[in-house]
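Annex B. Sample input.
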Amino acid sequence: MTLFSLARKNIQRNLSNYFLYIASMVFSIVIYFTFVTLKYNDDLSALKQSSQQIKGLMSASSVVLLFFIVIFMAYSNSFFMKKRKKEVALYSLLGVRKQKIGLMLFFENLVIGLVSLVLGIGLGFFMSQGLLMILVRLMGYEIVGSLTFSVEALLNTAVIFTILFLFTSLQGYRVIYQFKLIDLFHAEKQGEQIPRASLVAAVLGTALIAFGYYTASSDMFTSEIWRFFTVLGTPLMVIGVTIVGTYLLFHSVSVFVLTALKRATSWSWKGLNLIGVSQLLYRIRANAKSLSIIAILSATTITAGGGVFGMYYNAEASVRQMLPNTFMWKGDPVEFSQKDVIYHESLSVKNLRVDNEFSFFEYTLLKESDYNRLAKLQGKDQNLHIAGGSAVLLDAAYDERFSHDFTGEDFKLKNGDSFHVEKMYTESVLNFIPAGTVLVVNDQEFAATNAEEVKMQAIGLDNDLKQQAVSKDIVKQLSTEQQESFSSVPQSYEDSIATVGALLFVGSFLGLVFLAATGSIIYFKILTEAEEDQAKYAILNKIGVNSKQILKTVAGQVAVIFSAPLIVGIVHSAFALLAFSQLFGMNITKPVILWMIAYSAIYFIYYIFTVRSFYKIVRQGN
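Annex B, continued. Sample output.
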């Protein structure tokens, strides 16, 4: 029997253990190959305004993905090598030379890698069509891409992953030379001592996380902490203290919790609770690093995905906040299709200059009657009745953190007149691009005000987000000066959704890869522990513990390992997303909750799969 055939038989025999590793690797290769394929896709290149942006985004994403895959492969390979050390020692004891054992492990890893590469590229080719359509739809375009095979993408993926698989295969080859024979036989029996709780570490970990949460939830424009560490330094500081705090949380705080549960006899002496909590306590130090990494990765994935999904979810509302009219520009009306037109108003406004002690500001002066008419057409309930000498300020860009509230103040004009600001609204009836901040006065005050009069066109269309053709038709008829003041809801929405849609696409699939990899890491680690515990569960079975009790203990033990980093990751991301929502001034609660539910649902699938595999392993010893 050749070494290659022996390696092949070993893979077939251990296929169930390798399944999630291969599946995760295939999925990673599919996404990487797809990203590289999209980078060279002709259909995306045809989208002139977005092609370079998408190519740059895909290139950057492929590098991030590759970096993560390298870490995942090295981490997973170390678990498999630990499981195989006893088998390797047996080969050595039977007289097989170290060189041949090393070559066998080299071939095993290389075959797994090449099979994953072929499957990943094959699936990636067929999936690229669907993923291209998803990307195009998320970006708001109607084109349907064609299925093309990119030779550049194939060579890029094949070369990079072949190098990675050669590297991990060499790791396997070196195992036989790194350890003594006795160490290989007892590799699975090397464990941790029962850890002692460190009060200092526990308090420090809790304090660091609390400080990170407090800073993240503070307003970056008013907080003394943000001012002290600077805008660039504060996020890095928060990330640093959160990572250290998370490690100490699992390393020390968890020891306090598990020790307290063990001492609570009313709970620990029920069923097999004492055995389950003792097993967790015994290995908590070994798991602390892994759980911390998974918690941070989960927090990163949820934060990035939830933030981008929140922006995508609010894209339309953000556009409509600034552009209440479908089209608006300064100048005379032009000819365009009257289909779907709800209103077309020609307005007379005035460019108003307001001086203060230090500088001057320019506003658009609007008649009360024009405001009330537009507000009714736009479905707003406000109906103004403004007294002489008073005005209502409309500022769609108002932000209470760095914008001034002029309510109750007087605006002095250059000619000596003044307006008293009676009220201030953060919604306008004029588009912000051509009009800016608006002052509404009654019709008599408007007529008496000495300022440059300007004509504006305000148009409202039904199904306005799909009116790109009308937008382009209008632009062609406007002069260069008029085009500078032209604002279009469909065009602004298209530009916004194109950018955020591409980010959502990348964030979603990178998030899935991270989730698949982290889920696999937990799976490998728990299954390694299951094989170590096989004899212990066999003893429990012999003394009368039934299968139902064992399954319940296994499910509880695995639930702690799975749920602890997930809960910590969700809480971390909740505070990070709170800071994100405050920064951009948008409500992202609903999209974030949806994103967290989707992430947790996929994570739960890994939990179910792991419990079944764990139970199957411990039952094999009975």
